[in-house]
Amino acid sequence: MSNNSDRDNTQENIHSATSPKKCFEMEQRYGWKLKDIRKTKDSILKVDCVFYGKQTSFEDERYETDLDYLQE
Length: 72
Description:
This protein is α+β, with helices and mostly antiparallel strands. About 35% of the residues lie in helices and about 25% in strands. It has helices spanning about 20-30, 60-70, and strands at about 10-15, 35-40, 45-50. Strands 1-3-2 form a 3-stranded antiparallel beta sheet, covered by helices on one side. The longest helix has 14 residues, at about 60-70.
């Protein structure tokens, strides 16, 4: 069960997706708690998946991995 800090309504972690199904897949894969699914006007990324918590970036993870590789 999540604690209240996981559901801080003031912070949202938003990632676009091609369908609502992808939001549920992200929730399972990354352990994020889904707050909302919002339609967009984009013809490809049709929804914004809104999760509780601080905004994350997949780019940040990619660069951290690259930096770890360079330090070895």
